[in-house]
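Sample intake sheet
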Amino acid sequence: MNPTVLLATTLLFAPNGVGIPGHDRPPMPKRPASITALAASPKGDLLLSGDADGYVRRLRGKDELSAVECGRMGGAVQAITWGEVGAFLADDAGAIAFLEGGEPQPRAKHPGGVNALLLGPKGEILASGGQDGVIRFWQLKGDALVWHSQLEAHEGAVSGFALEGDERKAVLWSVGWDGKLKSWKWPKASKRIKTSATRPASARKGNRNARRASKRKLSRPKSEVTLGKRELTGVALANELLAVTGYDGRVIVIRLSRGKPKPVDLIGPQRDYAEWVMGCVAEPGGRRIVAIAGAEAKLLVLDTHDPARRPANLMRDMKAPPHVAVFTGPRELVVGRFNGTVTRVRLPALGGEK
């Protein structure tokens, strides 16, 4: 057979459809891979999910949510944050994208991968927390992102964010794999920022020596609390109460309104299968913080009005362990699981609630 004909035949009938218009990527699978990120719009009426294969989906439905594909990121979707302008997404390859026209559009790059994203109170600054231990701040110009500043925040990866205060006095709380909880002053938007400034000059010139752990100089936070030697996995804030989760199965609470923060180990690592509490989420304007104990197939509900009470375990009969969760309203929780399903959960009333 003519070699040219053989090559054309091979490309035409290749499993991935190489050479066929419209088949430049594999079709969306019927069921997603493990759900790795969830986010709700500011009004709670729209939902986005991201999975370990990089697929991004819009979710609809009351109980078992159906999915409509929006596109695909280059790596596993690690974080989604939603503001007035729309949704921003980040993956474990470090790409930060804006969801526009049903397809993620690249906007910035955080070297090494992103674990956390957060939009500031005025929607002008986006924070990304990376595997490199750096917090980068990006200023929004429409839906474009321009590098603003950065912090050498943690000696290990940055794993979670929580925002305290309003636009007048906002504080960013971060946790990392170095076992530390830190607070930072939220930056103000700059009027003179250049649209070409995608990263700092020191990074552009190859700041290799400074990036080495042995010579790296950390930025000075507003406050710092060491919560153990193991990795911290998430942080959430509600009613002046911070909840921090850890890889060793711990859930720690800190009351912020009483002078120096004093951590209380609410749930120690003595439980059966107690490891890798994957993160936590706070009820907007409410009293609940939910910790996602994936290794135990549990959701642990903390009442911020009575933080000394041991958290209640929710959904012992889950079909698959939870991976991520997001509140969409009072007592309304959406849970993404390791088996790729996403389900709405109505939380039981707490004392004094109707």
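Comment: Residues 3-12 form the longest helix (10 residues). The domain at 227-314 is CATH 2.40.10.500 (Thrombin, subunit H).
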